[in-house]
Inverse folding.
């Protein structure tokens, strides 16, 4: 079966995923090549710390860090909407860019040219080896959707899973209404 997974797409956890790392997760795919694997970031799981608490000598910005995934949780990554203002960044979807020169990022934040509504920071990432994601898609662990900048920068993380499912329509709208823990219903 052919899946619509590409750089810039979303992976939405199926409603009853047991893995706590990915329960009700929405992952933005930032790099996908079937023969090399897939990298992405969970965009709806904010942590209780800010980037300024995680990185020494970081300019002041009111930006929470997000749990990007269980791989390399000693690394920091960022997605932004300032485009080529940040040298070295890669556009992964319309209005959504990944990475860029870290020192220039700090300078732009210090000059108030990048604000908290322009950027999301991630601790760790989500990754799949070649063929692994296709196996998980075959097992119906993930639902694919198209990314939109508003999902990343405007949506409330606590509502994002439901929002993406609802926007897919049909049976997905019904699934979006399921409580997270049906046994407590």
């Amino acid at each position: 079966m052919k899946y619509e997974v590409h750089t810039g797409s979303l992976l939405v956890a199926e409603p009853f995923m047991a893995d706590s790392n990915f329960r009700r997760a929405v992952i933005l795919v930032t790099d996908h090549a079937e023969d090399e694997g897939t990298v992405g970031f969970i965009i709806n799981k904010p942590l209780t710390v800010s980037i300024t608490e995680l990185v020494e000598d970081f300019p002041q910005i009111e930006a929470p860090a997000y749990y990007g995934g269980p791989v390399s949780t000693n690394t920091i990554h960022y997605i932004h909407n300032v485009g080529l203002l940040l040298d070295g960044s890669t556009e992964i979807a319309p209005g959504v860019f990944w990475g860029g020169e870290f020192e220039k990022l700090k300078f732009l934040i210090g000059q108030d040219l990048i604000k908290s509504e322009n950027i999301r920071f991630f601790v760790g990432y989500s990754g799949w080896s070649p063929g692994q994601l296709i196996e998980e898609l075959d097992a119906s662990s993930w639902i694919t959707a198209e990314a939109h900048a508003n999902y990343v920068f405007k949506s409330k993380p606590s509502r994002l899973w439901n929002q993406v499912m609802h926007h897919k329509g049909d049976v997905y709208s019904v699934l979006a209404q399921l409580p997270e823990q049906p046994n407590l219903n």
User: Anything to note?
Assistant: The chain is about 25% helix and 30% strand. The two ends are 35 Å apart (CA to CA).
